[in-house]
Design a protein that fits this description.
It comes from Sneathiella chungangensis. The chain is mainly α and 254 residues long. The chain is built from 13 helices and no strands. The longest helix is centred in the C-terminal third of the chain and has 36 residues.
Length: 254
């Protein structure tokens, strides 16, 4: 049911400026008749300034006159030119019984045409649970064969204003995520560019000196020739010793 903006303030104005019954005012403002009576007695909504529904385009004087002449008639709010945000109750969104069968269709439409929306946002817009959303998405819903995407605004489950706000928030969130990814890519590119910078002559000379200081010809020979290098050294030692013995014997004979 569509209710006027600031229903209690509107009720205060209607009580003070019309002869409408408590039931008529309560029905129009979405209040209980006893609450309207409490407003009239000064026990409820104390200090609230009345809001003229005629000046804000929610009622016409002709509509008020019609209902004042017939106590069984009910006020009809003017259809707004745009979406008027309705007062939200605490807790989850209440969906009328007649509309609850349309929620899977609304969920399917949101998943298809607004994939940027999170499950929490869809749950808030449609008044459902994440389990139902996942069931519709995975086609495991008990009525999956009969589900067809339908706009939740046209179904009367949410207003266009609420849908636009959710989509806008998702767009901002995605923009922030894309900005974060871009910053990470830029940082990685900067690091790669820094690593690719050619070494200065001093750095090149330093690397050469470090390589020369750690150079071990014996280790390099063993790595290249293996055991043959070691055997060659032993043969060279033996040949040197033999040459020395022959030279000593020769000098002794002389």
């Amino acid at each position: 049911m569509v209710t006027p903006l600031l229903p209690k303030a509107t009720a205060v104005w209607l009580i003070d400026n019309t002869s409408l019954s408590f039931e008529q005012i309560a029905d129009f403002c979405g209040l209980h008749s006893l609450e309207v009576q409490g407003i009239a007695d000064g026990e409820v909504a104390v200090g609230i300034v009345g809001l003229d529904p005629i000046s804000n385009g929610q009622l016409t004087q002709a509509e008020i006159d019609r209902c004042q002449a017939d106590t069984s008639a009910r006020l009809q709010i003017n259809k707004p030119t745009g979406d008027v945000p309705q007062p939200r109750r605490r807790g989850g969104r209440y969906t009328p019984v007649s509309r609850r069968g349309d929620r899977p269709d609304a969920i399917s439409w949101l998943i298809k045409f607004h994939p940027e929306l999170t499950d929490a946002q869809i749950s808030k817009l449609v008044g459902t649970t994440k389990t139902t959303i996942n069931a519709v998405r995975d086609r495991t819903h008990w009525n999956a064969q009969n589900i067809r995407p339908r706009d939740p605004v046209s179904l009367g489950i949410c207003t266009q204003l609420e849908l636009d706000e959710a989509v806008q928030k998702s767009a901002h969130r995605r923009k922030d995520e894309d900005r974060g990814k871009l910053m990470e890519e830029v940082a990685a590119a900067v690091a790669a560019e820094a690593a690719a910078v050619p070494l200065t002559p001093y750095e090149i000379k330093k690397q050469q000196v470090q390589k020369e200081e750690s150079y071990d010809p014996r280790a390099e020979a063993e790595a290249v020739f293996g055991k043959s290098a070691e055997k060659k050294r032993e043969d060279d030692k033996a040949a040197s010793a033999k040459s020395f013995d022959e030279l000593f014997k020769s000098s002794s004979r002389d």
